[in-house]
Amino acid sequence: MFRSKTCGELRLTDAGTVVTLAGWVQRVRKMGGMVFVDLRDRYGITQLVFDDATDAALCEQASRLGREFVIQITGKVSERSSKNSKIPTGDIEILVNTLNVINAADTPPFTIEDDTDGGDDLRMKYRYLDLRRQCVRKNLELRHKMVMEIRKFLDDLGFMEVETPILINSTPEGARDFVVPSRMNPGQFYALPQSPQILKQLLMVSGFDRYFQIAKCFRDEDLRADRQPEFTQIDCEMSFVEQEDILQIFEAMAKHLFKSILGIEMKDPFQRMTWQDAMKYYGSDKPDLRFDMHFVELMDVLKGYGFGVFDGAAYIGGICAKGAATYTRKQIDALTEYVKRPQIGAKGMVYARVEEDGSVKSSVDKFYSQEVLQQLKAAMNAEAGDLILILSGDDAMKTRKQLSELRLKVADELGLRDKNQFKCLWVIDFPMYEWSDEENRLMAMHHPFTSPKPEDVPLLDTDPASVRANAYDMVINGIEVGGGSIRIHDSKLQATIFRILGFTPEQAQAKFGFLMNAFKFGAPPHGGLAFGLDRFVSIFAKLDSIRDCIAFPKNNSGRDVMLDAPGPLDQSQLDELQLKVDIK
Ligand code: ASP
What is the value of pTM for the model shown? Predict the structure, then answer.
């Protein structure tokens, strides 16, 4: 047997037994005539002791071990005189009597410990070493556990996991495709799935009834902390269901994960909020509800007093930061600068402080009497010690989004976004369409297979922008973890939707003909959703970026710096594919 125990399992009760361990040398310490080695594997760290007085040659050999050498040892488990309560094996050590150096190692480019000296780039280049660090490995362990729980949960409910192909053609999730040239079909390309959307709908037409897949998806978008060009979805679809059935099942799945993984019992039903309300009160379709600080519209309160910025505004909204009247002028200026950054784009910010005596002092005292400022205080439900922050603009939606950024920023500063607290929410009743300035047409807000609310169908031709969809998102702590919809299962309605989206019947037929044809052969009513597994895990692991729960992630330019991908093709490969590269 190569090893009899792992480096994480020996306890005081094992004292006296002889064991064989194998692993990596984390650290070597020499003290007097002794050499101490921390031996590490996936399961933990065990202290090895080499004693000069017992075996001088062996001790000398141990003193020459370097970091990350792979070794195998045999020795006796014994109680430590000075115990280490920080690690589970901290009560024991191994008095080694044989040492087998299996593989020497070069000095690693950074220390392989939780507290490492390696920067991000270096760690990504040597990701296989980074993954040896316990703090990184535990995120992947958590991911594995979550996937196992999800599979168990869905299997128990009769969901069947079906794999769908990766080499397909474009799927309409609104991002750019990654494409793969086809050697056997020169000049033609596959697209990698942005999601298995169409395939899972076809599986419903096939009668699979309850499908899921832990599916790789690919979207060529600009990257952010919560986006990777390839990511994993828990993709689900069901037949003969209504929206309520789906919300119930997947709320139960989320609760099951909270319970089984984090030991958190979520008794109350998840809050539900319409998209309209989410935008009105929080300026976001994924509001973070760990704290309130909702928007109050102030048009009636602040318009008409000669302050040009407000008088000309289409929207004036405020938030009340509880207890933040202590903000210094410098802090407030920093907030103003924050909202004025081009990414946010506000023109300026007005503030009002509620003093200890209840009076209000604002940055626009010139225009507003104390009486009006008291009305402001009342409208904001503000008390002594609070800080009111106000944004205005000529586009209500844009201003709300700016105010949303401000709300999150202030909450961060006030420590209201505690990663140990979880607030789950369903956002429902999304609009079917949103206007795209870029494309100069209506676009599907979710995707073109989403069904309209039956009561809104008559509006499709007269006022499409006001049509609501049977679409929903699950939001946890301000992060969209999942979303889906009840689909259209009627080829005529589907054709109408394509028309409103600006497809001619020929274009719709060319792009989605197979789906509309499939619907002619008996399509059941169906719907589903997909969760972003990486996001879900990173919330549970309390990470700032999804990269930390992905074994081999890409960097912000979409590169895998370890594999050095993407890279050029050999001329022979290009020739075989009949491709010519013409970089401008
Ligand atoms: N395919 C959708 C997405 O990737 C999810 C769904 O509608 O089931 O967002």
Answer: 0.95
